[in-house]
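Chain A, query sequence.
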Amino acid sequence: MRILSVCSPSHEPFRDQWFLPTLPPGFEPEVLDVDQTCASALHRTEGWREAVSPRYGLIADAITRAPDEIMVYSDIDVRFFDLRPETVIAALGDSDLALQRDSYTGRVCSGFFVFRGNARVLALMRSMQEQLAAEASMCDQPLLNDLMEVKRWGGGLRYRLMRWPGLGHRLLDLDFTRRRFESCVRWRYLDASFWTPGHGLRHEEWSPGNPVQIPRRIVIHHANWCLGIEGKLRQLEYVDGIVRARGGAPAQRPPHRPAHKAAHNAAHNSDQR
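Chain A, predicted structure.
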C-alpha cells in the first residue's frame, strides 16, 4: 500500500528519525522533496502555504496513476506504531476519505488521512490546488474543513467564506456543484488510535511536561498542537517513551529511502517551479 508524504529540508529529522524508521512492512513510501519556502517552518507563517500546497498535487498525481487504489497521505512528522494495510482498509470502510479528528469541535486534520483514489477525491484535491493558488492568505487545513463541510451536507451549495487578510476583508466565493464534484465526498473520522493531541486538547498548545491522554491502542502518533520543529520532536520522544513503557512500541528499523523515488521527486519539483 502506498503512503504519500512531503518533506522540506527543515523536516528531514522527522523523515530520517521517525517516519521512515518506524514505517512497517506492507507500505511503500513515496516522499516528495520540496524547497524550503517557509524559513521559520512554523504553521501559518510566511511561505507556509507554498510549503503545504504540493501535497495536493502529489495526491492528485497518485490517483491519476492508480485510480481506485486505497492510499494514505501522512505528514512527515508521524511515528508509526501498529499501522497495517488491513487496519487502513477497515478504517476507510466504504467511504472516500477517513481523516483525523483534530479538535473537540470536530474539525478534521489535513496532515493524515486515508483515501480512495476515485473521481470525487481527485476533484477535491484539484479544488484544493486551485483555491490555494488563487488566495495568498489561504491556509490549507481551514480550506479543507470548509470544503468537507460543504460536501458533507450537499454538493449543490454556494458557500461564501469570509477572510480578513491584513486590515481589509475579502469574500471568497466557493461554488461547489454536483456537476463539478460528481457527487458528495463520503468521509468519516479515523478512530482515536490514529492519534493526535487534538483528540484531547481544547485550545491550548502542548508543551513538554503537559500530560496528554494517549489511547492504550495506538496505531500512529501525528505530532501537532505544539510549537515548531523542536516542540514536535520533543512530543514524539515523549509519546514514544510512554508507549514503550507500556511495552507497546515496536523496535525501529533502519532508515530507508527507495532509490526510484528520486526521479519521481525531480519530476514533481519541476512541475512546482
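The chain has one domain: 2-272. The longest helix spans residues 228-245.
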